[in-house]
Amino acid sequence: MVKQVANPRLIDVFGADFSQDDVGFAIPRLHRDIPLYVDPFLLWISDKPTYRAMHEEVVGFFRLVSEHLRAGNVEAAALLLAGCKEPLAMGLGYALGSRQGSNIGPKLIGSILHTHEAIPQLLEGRIRHMEELQLVVPNFAEDRASDTASSILKRFFLEYTAEQAAIHKIPVRKTRLGQVYDPSRRLWVPAPEVAVPYNPVDGSPILLVPLDMLRRLPWINYEDYYRSSFAARVLESDRRNKRVAKEAVLEFNSRNYVEVERYVSEREKFGNQCHPDPLFSPLTSVTLRTKYKELRELPAGSTNSADRRYEDLVFELLSSLLYPTLEFAENRVRTVSGAHIRDLIFYNDGKSNFWRDIRDRYEARQPVFEMKNVRTLDSEHVNQLFRYLDEEFGRFGVLLTRNPLPSSVTKNIVDLHSSKRVAILVLDDRDLELMMSLLDSGRDPSDVVKKKFIEFTRLLPK
What we know:
single chain, 462 residues, alpha+beta, Restriction Endonuclease, 2 domains, five-stranded mixed beta sheet, 45% helix, elongated
């Protein structure tokens, strides 16, 4: 079953009766990371005592590193940092096409220790947020901040995952995931055996992560620091348009850590504006209208790559217009008879009566939308999509094109349904505009697809 799902999620492989809207954790993808990070700042500003205690646990870990260094015990500090192994089971980050990552290594450990020894505030254990290290340690970027915090807090994620798996009846296997940090003993200890979900693709364990811990960038991050603090406060006005190399900025921060502390204080001051990021952020109505205007001005055909731009614009429009009724799963590029074809594939979790009926009637757990930037759609375009649906994704698909269908193509679509029970709908530019109008009025743009389906069923033989 996994092979028949594009970018499968955990819930796609064991018949779950819940969707992302029903749970407080990010539903894992089986082949790819979720493009979000654990942001320790969300723990610091939380009104949950457990979260605030976890933030203190992370900060306390680095204060212990400082304590070892002050005592001259560099080896103990290094061993403490070496215990921070990237928790791959969480599946977070921006790895494309895989769920693999890398662990913290000796070189980075050396940089962290050197930075602590070089900056009095850090050596004295005055760190307030471990994300400060992004601003002074080379190669300690937002992904490392997330990985390190998650590693220190792995005991929580193990317990949380076991609890959620039991509540939602997610299949589990017992496992031991390396080591966990014990703040009471101030050292790494073997992880307890816990029953957690597993990836049916490769059997690897999966840890669930609460949505209210996740952001695309940490609230305290290098790019925000550079723009709002370093460029604005440190650089002369005539130098602000020329980007300073990150290495030089980190060296400056190490010598002038007061600038980092000032920036962190500002971020704390406006911390009430820090919120978790959603798994997907749809485009605004204004942006959608701008993109639709560009689409309308595109000529039909492939001249000057108009077909590729049409595909990009339809992707951006549909992924927002159909959300959250349908969630974007993947875009696939195929070559059929030398022609470039892009398909948009969505998750259909049956969030409305219409999409539940489509899923049940046509086994369409992943509706396929295919774009054709042609003036006139012909039967071969329909047949191409039919062959793709018949192989993998159920028996329901949608073609996007520029103009209404010729009657001969409509007859072909009806015949396919009569003989193969495959439903193919066709939307054109005017339908996309209608979808945006529905969105502006607070209605579901999917109603346009529903209307097309009703019109289609009226053409079928009685």
